[in-house]
Design brief:
Elements (H helix, E strand, L loop, with lengths): L10 H38 L7 H10 L5 H15 L5
The protein binds the ligand C=C(O[C@@H]1C=C(C(=O)O)C=C[C@H]1O)C(=O)O.
InterPro entries: Chorismate_II_sf, Chorismate_mutase_highGC-bac, CM_dom_sf, CM_II_prokaryot
GO biological process, one term: chorismate metabolic process
Protein name: Chorismate mutase
């Protein structure tokens, strides 16, 4: 008989689900890197034109977007914003 976990997930299912997690992490990393790139491009262009480094209302929109994930959503949004700031934000 195929061994199952408490909720009835077969060991083979776990292997497949882990593969999906690995794929999802790779996609998330790719998207985060692209987000950093885009955010830095916008920031550099704005500062070159004499504008501010940070646009608070835009950042509030980003924070609101992740609110459904609770406190961790806020941490995630903050991490994304900080990554986009790079060295300038430290
Ligand atoms: C990317 C921008 O620049 C900054 C970075 C933001 C972001 O990473 O989401 C949002 C607002 C700005 O502080 C922007 O103004 O849209």
């Amino acid at each position: 008989m195929t061994p199952t976990t408490e909720n009835g997930t077969a060991a083979e299912d776990i292997d497949a689900l882990r593969k999906e997690i690995d794929w999802l992490d790779a996609e998330i990393l790719r998207l985060v890197k692209r987000r950093v790139e885009v955010s830095k491009t916008i920031g550099a262009a704005r500062m070159a034109a004499g504008g501010p480094r940070i646009v608070y209302n835009r950042e509030m929109d980003v924070l609101a977007r992740y609110r459904e994930l609770g406190p961790e959503g806020r941490q995630l949004a903050m991490a994304l914003l900080n990554l986009g700031r790079g060295r300038l934000g430290r």
